[in-house]
Amino acid sequence: MIIHEITVIGGGISGLTFAHYTALKGHQVKVFEKEKGGGSIHSYCLNKRHIDFGAHTLTNRYAVVLEILEYYKATDQIDKPLPLKFEGYGNNRFFNLLSRIYWMEVLRSILIGYKTKKMGLSVSTYYSRIFGKKNYHHFFHYVFQAILCQDPDHYPAEQLFRKRERNRKYPNTFSLKKGLAQLLSIIQTNPSISLEYKNITRVTRDGDLYVLWSNAEKVAASKFICLACDPKNAALLLGELQPSMAGLLQHFPVVQIQSLLIGSSNSLLFSKRNKSLIGFDMPFYSAILYVTEGAKFWLFHFKENTISVAEKIRLISGVFSVREDEIYVVAARQALLPAVSADHLELQHKIDFEIAGSSIFVVGNYLNGLSVEDCCSRAKKEAERLSSY
Ligand SMILES: Cc1cc2nc3c(=O)[nH]c(=O)nc-3n(C[C@H](O)[C@H](O)[C@H](O)COP(=O)(O)OP(=O)(O)OC[C@H]3O[C@@H](n4cnc5c(N)ncnc54)[C@H](O)[C@@H]3O)c2cc1C
């Protein structure tokens, strides 16, 4: 068993950003990740085009992300963003999104509600005040559902579309030349960070060291640990060490997103549509259109456990009016996202209170918001706590 200074459990953007900022302070960091290409950032290469199964767009408001790219002299890897134009699909038809808006209600509600503060409100309460209840239920609910890949109604309004300054040196929105997974590979070039693929199943204490186990094997020990995995796994790992903290983490529900990248041999019918889709009362949140070498592919993000793969194919064939045997699955993937609600805001503070002054660090997309920048800024803050230790 090798003794490290710092070990990180979870090699997504949260864990690697924590590793990056601790490495900057002169520490050696060991990151354990349970699977290759795991996590919410995953780029799949199809016909030399990188298709992002999870996060696909960064913005020039993402200051920490840009700081990382600048540090590794990788801003030349910034690429044009995925062109995103959407139309709605529901009730067996496609429609223009704006046709779902009740404009009179928007005018009335904005005049009354424009001073509403997001603090402590859920997405449905806040946006119903701003745009009107009918507009929220008929339109914004579905748009936010597609953005968050989950039911958005109870999500904390203050953690969606945070106000952040633009850095005008960079495009408003952008991707990276090899897809967003390149951000992870860029950080991994840091010689002070080493990553190993191991599923960590247990953490115990031995004197002042944390001992990391993968099933029956002790794989590492370290003075500091950072939990950078989903809240369910983090709760499991902390169960023996810090039951009170594990109890808090268990309160965060998680949802699974099942994504299918779809192509079709019937390019004539399949290619009739030119926009990505937002599902209205459909088993899918959204379907993102990718065009590569003239062929169109749709990446469908399905809700958890709704229908089987065969039923998904049937549904997709119905959407595009092609036969089921003319549709094929290019790649499939599952991602986990926390389903944070406004009620969890207090829990987020309690977690910070519980770990203040401890040698356990906790980062991830359930503590400060879902976006890549939210994850990076949380991880940077925790790394700063470590350096003040
Ligand atoms: C479909 C989708 C689209 C999105 N679009 C955008 C977008 O356009 N812009 C944006 O800013 N954000 C977007 N997001 C959100 C953002 O991508 C995620 O919130 C963020 O990447 C989460 O990073 P993370 O490191 O906190 O968690 P994760 O990426 O989930 O990483 C956690 C890692 O921990 C590993 N792990 C778990 N348990 C263990 C264990 N026991 N041992 C070892 N390793 C373990 C997992 O395998 C995983 O790799 C999107 C998310 C999804 C799913």
Q: Which percent bin holds the helix content?
A: 25-40%
Task: Output the number of helix runs.
Answer: 12
Per CATH, the class of the largest domain reads Alpha Beta
For the secondary structure, the number of strands is 19
What can you tell me about this protein's structure?
- The chain has 389 residues and is an alpha/beta fold.
- The chain folds into three domains: 2-74 and 177-252 and 342-387, FAD/NAD(P)-binding domain; 98-159, no CATH class; 254-338, 2-Layer Sandwich (D-Amino Acid Oxidase, Chain A, domain 2), CATH 3.30.9.10.
- It has helices at residues 13-24, 63-71, 103-113, 123-131, 133-148, 181-188, 231-238, 243-249, 267-270, 309-320, 345-355, 372-387, and strands at 2-9, 29-33, 43-46, 49-52, 58-59, 78-79, 86-90, 93-95, 173-176, 193-197, 202-206, 209-214, 217-227, 254-264, 276-279, 284-292, 295-302, 327-338, 360-362.
- Strands 1, 2, 10, 11, 12, 13 and 19 form a seven-stranded mixed sheet that branches.
- It starts with a strand and ends with a helix.
- The model has no long low-confidence stretch (mean pLDDT 93).
Provide a concise account of the structure shown.
With 389 residues, this protein is of the alpha/beta class. The chain has twelve helices and 19 strands. Helix 1 (13-24) packs parallel to helix 6, helix 3 (103-113) packs across helix 4 (123-131) and helix 7 (231-238) packs antiparallel against helix 8.
Task: Describe the structure using short key phrases.
389 residues, alpha/beta, FAD/NAD(P)-binding domain, D-Amino Acid Oxidase, Chain A, domain 2, 3 domains, seven-stranded mixed beta sheet, 12 helices, 29% strand, globular, binds flavin-adenine dinucleotide
